[in-house]
Every structure is written in C-alpha cells, then in structure tokens.
Model the fold of this input.
Amino acid sequence: MQPESAPATSGPVNRMVVAVLALVGVFLTFYLVAYNLGWTPPIACGAGDCGVVQSSQYAWVGPIPVSVIGLGGYLALLVLAIMGLQPSAARSRAIPFLLFAGALFGVLFSAYLTYLEAMVIQAWCRYCVASAILITLVFVATLPELKRLRGS
Amino acid sequence: MKKFYLIIAIVAVGGIAVVGFALRGGGSAASEPVDLGDIANEDLVALAQGMVYGDPDAPVTIMEFGNYQCNACRDFALQIKPQIDLAYIETGQAKFVYYDYPHPGFPHSFLAARAARCAGDQDRYFEYHDAIYSTFNSWSRPESPYGHFNDLAEDVGLDTEAFESCLDSDRHADVVTANLTLGQMLGVPGTPGIFIHREGEGGANRLGGFRFIDIQQAMEAGEAN
Done:
C-alpha cells in the first residue's frame, strides 16, 4: 500500500507548497509593479539599492516592467498549482509539464536578473533577491512533477 | 485540503495587509503639484521663493523659470549660465534666481525640482541643480528617477539620509507648486523663461530668447539707461 499511495500524496503536497509560495510571490511582485507604475514613488528599502535597480534600464522590457512579468508568472504558477490539486487533474500531463517548465523558466530568468544586479548594475534590491529565493524554492517544489510526467 | 485553503487564506490576508501598508506608508514622495487652496497673490509671491545664486544685494536680477526635464533648460544650464556667471554674477553686477516651472507634461520634473530643493536644505542647491542637468539623459526616461536622485545626492556629497527623508516626503511641494503658479501668472510661454529685473524698476522684463547674447543685450540696454 505504501509504495502506491506515496506518489499520489506527494504530488498534491508539492503543489500546495507551490501554490503558497506563488501567492507570496504575487504580493511581492505586486508591490514592485506598484512602484514601477508610480503608485508608490519611494520604494521602502531598508537595505540595498532598490531604487537604483528599479530605476535601471533592466527593470523594464520595452514598455513592460520586469515586475509585471514576475507577477504574471507567479499568478500562472498559482492557478496551475490550484488546478493541479483538483481530482479532475489527477491524470493531466499538461499541468505537471507547465508547472515544471514555468518554474524552470522563472528560475532561469531570475538567475539572469540576479547576474545583472551583481555584475552590471552593481546594486541589490532586496525584493528582487527575495523573489529569486522564492522562485528557486518553487522550482525545487516542482521537481516531483518530473516524476509524474515520467510516470504517466 | 481544508488545511491548505486555510493556509492560502492566511497568506492572502497577510499579503494584502503588508502590501496595503507598504503602499500607504512607503509612498509619500510628492511628485505632482499640490493644492494650494485659495491663496492670495501676495501670499503666493511670498511662498514662491526662487533659489538665489550670487550676491543677494546685486542691483540686477536674472530670473529663470526652468523645468529640469526640458532639453532647452539643460542647454541653458550647462552652456549659457556658466557665461552669465562669469560675466555678471561673479563680478557682482547681477544675481541669478532660479524658479521651478515643472510642466505637467514632464512626469519627473516636479520630483526633480523637489530633489534640488532638498539639496538646497543642505546649502548645495546649485551643485545639485547642475548635477541634475548634467545627468539629464540618465534619468529623463519613463522609469522612476527616484534612485538616480538619491545617487546624485551622494555624488554631490550630501547627507544622504536627510536627503532621502526629504525626498520621501511632501517637503517643498508647496513652494515648487507656488513657483509654477507664479510662472503661469507671469505668462511664462515656455522654458527656460528668462526675466531681468533692475533695482528701482517696477516690473521684470521677459526676454524673447535665452541665448547669452539676449542676456548681454538686455544687460547693456540697462547700463545705457
């Protein structure tokens, strides 16, 4: 009984973790979006140079703030994780794939942004660092999805 | 599953509270003109103090209504004003007074004007004024220039903590707004708007241009009278 039931419970539990972490990411990135869109001009930044990072050219991709991309990513992961918890999604191949691929893209994009902070802008934004840690945890939490993909 | 939805609900409520607090408490830097109410003209003039460069007792006053986000004002600040300084300010013939004229169409100009006045609190107004114009291309973009203005404060050698605290507030927002309103009352057609006032004369004369020769001619015309 144990070997059979373990994969069934570990899947949803990891998705619960993804959902909670993604929700935290939604709030974190929403705050940065509010800053980028001028709803909160001075960023509350106790340590680091959030203002420098958020004012740099790398904080925008064309007319879109990077924080909006982050917010969209976390929202997508949140929705996917909650969808993946529904009994109807038990046999879905799309949800494990999208969860893992989305988290992988997020962690790579975040690594690139962290590289820019360290090497190019040479300033740190604690919200960006927090997001980088968060997406890394999300990525780790999506690793069981690989097992689900192989198993299905 | 019930436990999970309970955790989600707790995170959601906590997140809304934290972000709501941060948006309300963290963002108080005035970046737009404020409502001065029904202010009397004499009170407006008293409030709209320009920033003086040179001998305050000099007989001639060269006034500029400037907008930190305007290209022509930058050119005036970096190319024409140094000539004025050399010819008239340093010789004590005139003083230069800078008034803010942050057009609503220039999103960062009001914050820039306030930033310069925050530097003025530490008696470094014109150093910061020059630094803002010198770095015009670095901050006059769609992104918020807030970080850049803080960096400039450090470059100019200001007490950055005091500067940041000033920039984060609505300090000088009333004075900058009064400057803008005064300029509108005087009919400043565009920036830089240059006026010359001589001691003993009633009003100030608005110059048609802002080249050094325009100022030179106006100064010489005054000497001839």
